[in-house]
Amino acid sequence: MSTRRIPRKRRGQRHQFFEADGVDEVLSCVLRLTSEVSALSERLYFAERVLEARGMDMAGEIEGYRMSEADEAALSAERQRLIETVLAQLGASGSGAESIEDDVNSES
Amino acid sequence: MSLSHDHDMAVSLNQQDRSRRAFVSTLRSHVLQRMSGDLRQHYEHAVEPEHAKSGTPLETPEAIHEALKGEFPFKAYSSVRTAAQEMVFDVVSDAVDRQLEVLNEKAAKPAKHGTLTLDPALPLPKSVTGIDVHLSPGSYHAEHAQDDVTAGAVYDNSIDVFAFGQFGKQHNDIGATLSNYLRLKYPDFAPAAILDCGCTIGHNTLPWAETYPAAEVTAIDVAAPVLRYAHARAESMGIAAHFKQMDATALAFDDGQFDVVFSSMFMHELPLKHIQQYLREAFRVLKPGGILWQMELPPMNAMPNYENFYMNWDTFYNNEPYYGTFRKQNYQQLLVDAGFSADDFVEATMPRYTFVGEAAFREAIQGGNTFDTLTGRMDPKGTRWYGFGAWKR
Fold it and tell me: Do B82 and A12 touch (CB under 8 A)?
């Protein structure tokens, strides 16, 4: 659970610029995600420089690294997981739901 | 990007903080340069010609705003600019939140140079408490601990990200520019007492103490957390200033006490009736021979229509609701209504002192005023600040 003390959401309604509901908020989410991706890639950049300073050519070794079948499988699974996570709400709805219409309309 | 603070109230940043801040600054810069350029181009090449052709030319900033509202470049610019503004406060709050106790302890240290006088009974105006100004959660006044400086720390850090360096290394360029303008333009003027109204964290207060070392510098604000921070910041920089919690519309000073009354980016955050009260108070506390001298957004009557539309975006979408009304005023008339004489009105557009250096600054202020896309806007190509005020005879 977050221990933040400074409020992060301002009081009052956000302005809606795009007609369709939620577009502005989705854009905000995408920008925040991009910020995290940027911070992460900079972290990796620094990791490479730190190792370089200790005599390890991490960037070079990554480029020259030969992937094993196990690596392929692991990375492929991770890629699929990421895509499924990001696009979770765009797919077909989950199967197995039963109609409860009768229940809803039935009288006691 | 490297921004220096050189004061003890600066928060320590980890690498993730630095990366996230750099990203948001870059994003803001992209919105204000590239996306705003796209918007302008769309206006000039599509919207304006269409309206001219159909016999309904866009002759006011309001008409331009209405015409652009439904256009994709406006929606994209506005939506991304709003998101980026919200991100500014979010990314800086991480480090401040982690170091809240440390900052409050540092701020509680005994003063060596200046003073801090708080007035817990002071009623806060609705213009500060009613909305989160600039979309900043908690505005200037919210407190999260005893004797809290959080709002000041968030404000100081947010300027780093928000202004991507365009306010100068110590965020002090506006104060440095306006004080040095007086020093160079009026070399015989030697103020002994200077007042900064609506000072927040004192970033534009302190250059006055540097420009006029013999003067006593006083700064007021209604919000206690920013004043505590301002005082601690000034102390750690070894600069003497006296910070007081006070409302500029009801100054607790005697008549004729100050040689300079200064404010920066202050009036545009006030309702018109408070601006009028403040200016009357400024006139009252000035000595004869003193000057009211303030940095503000340029008035609408001096700027082209498109610039006015563009500049007034904030009044509609950035929780600065008074800004549009202020810019519509005739500034000279505002001062005349407050007691100044129309003949004593002074206004100037000035390059940024800490960016261009003394020689270029001195030369620039000999020329006339220039109102264009660089006036009153943050632009790496060369922002020009607008100042106005009046001498009290």
Answer: no
